[in-house]
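thread: overnight batch results

M.L. [08:02]
morning all. the overnight job finished for the chain we discussed friday. pasting input first so we're all looking at the same thing
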Amino acid sequence: MIVTVTPNPSIDRTITLDSPLTRGAVHRVASVSSEPGGKGVNVARTLMLAGHDAVAVLPAPAGDPLLAALDISGLAYRAITGSTAAVRTNITVTESGGTTTKLNERGGTLDPATLDALTEAVLDSAARASWVVLSGSLPPGVPSRWYADVVALLAPLDCRVAVDTSDDPLAALAESFDLAAPDLIKPNSDELASITGTSAVVLESAAAQGDPGPVVAAARQLVDRGARAVLATLGAGGAVLVDQTGSWLATPPPIVPVSTVGAGDSSLAGYLLADVSGLAAPERLRMAVAYGSAAASLPGSALPSPAQTDTDAVDVRPVSHQPAN
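M.L. [08:03]
and the structure it wrote out:
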């Protein structure tokens, strides 16, 4: 079983336009969809579509529309209902060319009692899990080092831990690697740059030119500091995986991008599916990129099933990294 943790879940409302978004203009909407969301929920839903046992742990008031949406989806979940703050709604606007604009609410404040209950639920669920995935932003009321603290609390257990977050929670996690580093961290180029003192522009431009060296070097910093593996997602540039045994670059197949919502979460789910199937690092990367590419080719916040992924179309090659003098 894989447990996902989403401290700041959401209802994800996606608005699709047939024309480019113009600030200040009136637009006719082509379609609208709403799905239960938040990064950990997306990971769990993708795992469920692949037939793997997954449980989403999250805070939400009793009777919140999110819980009804989860019931409809069929996803197993464990809700901490002590909070009275309604679950946020995030708005995504997708254009016909695949450009995505996101408007994310901050989320309701979690009081200390609800946060303590959430932490206890994570630890209890982790006792039966192969992986625990800590994903997304932290709502108001939650200290930025909560992920770092939970990783340390999970360290004595048999489960492995993956973290996908950004901004202050990511910085706090990186600063705590000496106490408890995760088994997997999944940054994008901006997030990787922010915790390694590098430039996101340099990382992205080098990757776009077929040179993954700067990304590998940045990710290697985190592995050297204790992270077991780094899965750095690069959008259309694919992804890089760096662990204690080597480094690899995966290039995605050509696709027509429709919506990038959930692509990173699908990549993480693909990696986990490959890992629990016993596949080696290059094949874990291959499946991660196959799932991420499939998600980007789907409308709205739709998540891919195995039938919609094509691992054979993903090219994976090893990358050597020579430390700078």
